[in-house]
Amino acid sequence: MKKTEINADAYRLVAESLYRIRQLLRDGLRAAYGDDWETGIPEERRGYLKQRRAREASINWHLIDSSDVLDYAGFLDLYEVIEANPQLQELFTSLASDVNVLRIRFMELDTILSRVAYVRQVADTELSFLISFDERLRKLIAGPRPVGPAAGGKPTKAAEPAARATFSPEHPAADPPAAAARDRKSEPTGQRVAAAPTSAPDAAAAEPRAAANPADDIAQALAEKKDRPVLLALYSEITAIADGLYNQSTPPYPTIWEKVRESDWYHARFAPLGLKSVSDFYGLVDEARNRLAAGASKTELQDLLKERNYAQVLLALRELFRHQTQVTN
Questions:
Q1: Would you kindly state where each structural domain of the chain is located, as residue ranges?
Q2: In three state form, how does the secondary structure of 39-94 look?
Q3: Is the pLDDT of residue 180 over 50?
């Protein structure tokens, strides 16, 4: 893949992540502080972001007033907001085990954002990280948001439970979330570059949602040759394994794949559904497990993933699940 092609994929993923995290923080701060939600941003950081906005306004007279301070925040700026608000820390627990790990993740994202902005090479491992982070962030958006009013905050209608984004192929979620769309002023096109364009008005964030216990129903789904339940079970397992590989730990054993690959469904649907990327992924996972069992170092594992075009395999899987779970029954 050429450098410009890699950076285009990286830009789309990092921009969507930045946009969605800003939206989550707006929703959370409004729920906690009401109309004065910007007071939830640490004073020093809020002043810095206002200076950044003022500097842009002094140069570009076409600046549109509807941009708020979070539109000028990078990932580390957003981390400071999360760190200062315990209720927001709770919201982001699915992205990292604690706030220190979350800071490292946001530092990685800021580094990638800088590479893209200045047209420097984005490594395959960084692209893999973006894909994995994007999947987890989408799941976070789909789930309940444990954010309540902060002490001394002035609850408004925004403090009521926001309409949950339905994160499934049957009911694709609107992006941005409905509550944020109601509360915010319309944004200029230049500030919405991260939103993924689609032909349907509410399909921007459509992604498959994994079943709560995919292994329980996989045998029946295979016997009945139902594509969607099988694909969703594979999606769940692949996401967990990809996280393990990114963290350079031994990935979970592929129990779903073991059942699928021996089934009549797999052999019949391999070509019609375009399942080669699934086979490629699990083949790479087998090789990685063997290397790790033999004592391979983190550097050696990274070299293997790069050699096998791991980032491109993940991108192919992402498109496969995005497409097939919307068109299959």
A1: 3-144+171-191, 214-327
A2: HHCCHHHHHHHHHHHHHHHHHCCCCCCCCCHHHHCCHHHHHHHHHCCHHHHHHCCC
A3: no
